[in-house]
Structure formats: structure tokens, C-alpha cells
Amino acid sequence: MSPRKSILVPLAVLLTIAGALCIERSQGRTRGEKRGANSSNAGAKPAAPSVKEEFAKLRRQWAQELHDKELDKIIALYAPDAAFLAPSGGRFTGQDEIRGLFKTIMDTVTSNITFHSIVTESSGDLAFDSGDYSETLVPAKSGPDQHYKGDYLIVFRRQKDGQWRIVQQAWTFAGNDLLPPSK
Questions:
Q1: What is the Cβ-side half-sphere exposure of residue 44, based on CA atoms within 13 angstroms?
Q2: Pairing relation of β-strands 109-123 and 91-93?
Q3: Residues 40-69: pLDDT tens digits?
Q4: Most buried in the list 55, 65, 97, 109, measured by CB within 10 Å?
Q5: Which CATH architecture has domain 3-31+48-171?
């Protein structure tokens, strides 16, 4: 596998995870909270979505923005001091380094990723989402599709504006390390 293809696969996975985490954090509810009004609150305003529901929405948003190659929208899901931890052990810190990683991915492949959240928890202004994923990467120029599976962990922090942003994101995958170490 060429070095360029080796870098793109982990990047696509990372982008997907980051998007998922941001979505869930922006919803801001804990897993135990219930949604909707009951019969005794017929005129009441519907409850806000749970943190679990918010993160599910953020995962879908992240995956779609990665697929659609919406670089600015993906980066907006990350806190300014976020870190992306690559399966190879590399660390991409801050939005600029993460942007460079995702730009390389988006220039090289189109990602089709599906998440399966296993655990979503929150406490105060911190939350995490952990699960597994399945991803197909379609090369931008030529070559066979690449299929990957692995696990992810995304840590979110609620920002002063109330939005959840990704502060730490880590991926694993079966197979060879595809991402080079960070600088």
C-alpha cells in the first residue's frame, strides 16, 4: 500500500469519530433523562434531547460531513485544543493539525462510515462516546475500495456557548498502521 493510501484510511476514520462525538455533546443531556411530554404536561414544552440522542445526531453529522468532504464543518466539531490520537500512536493536536490530517484524507478518499455506539456517558461538562465502526474508503483516483473495522472513543467537553465539542478522539483498527506518526 502506498504511503498516501496508508495515511488516508486512518484519517477518514478519525474524522468520522470526531463528528460523532461533537454531535452527541451538542445535545447536552444525560443518558437517563427522558424525552417528550407526558399526559400530565400536555401544554409543556418538549424536553431537550438526551446526551445519547445528541451524540447520535453528531455522529451522523460527522460521518456525512466527512463523506461530503466538508472540511470546515468537520473542524468546527473540534475544540481549539482537541487532540486526535492515531492508531499508529501519532498525536495531532489543535484544529490546524487536525485540519491537515482531514484535508489529506478528503483529498485521497471518500469515506462511507457507520458507527455503533456501545457506551455514552456524561458528567457535568464532560462526556464520552465509545463503540465500534465499519468503514469503506473509495479512492479519489483509482484503485480498489478499502474496508476497515475497529473501535473508537470520543471525549467531548461542553463549551461556554453550550455546544459539545470533541476534545479527544482515538481510533483503532484491525490491520497495519496506516497513519504516519505526527510531527
A1: 11
A2: unpaired
A3: 445 555 556 788 898 999 999 999 999 999
A4: 55
A5: Roll (3.10)
For residue 87, how far is the Cα from the chain centroid?
A: 15
pTM of this structure: 0.70
CB of 13 closer than 8 Å to CB of 20: no
Contact in structure between 179 and 169 (CB atoms under 8 Å): no
**Euclidean distance between CA atoms 129 and 154, whole angstroms:** 5
Count the alpha carbons within 13 Å of 65 in the hemisphere toward its beta carbon: 25
Q: 170 is written with which cell numbers?
A: 482515538
Domain range list for the chain: 3-31+48-171
Residue type, 25: R
Give the whole-angstrom CA distance, residue 85 versus residue 5.
18
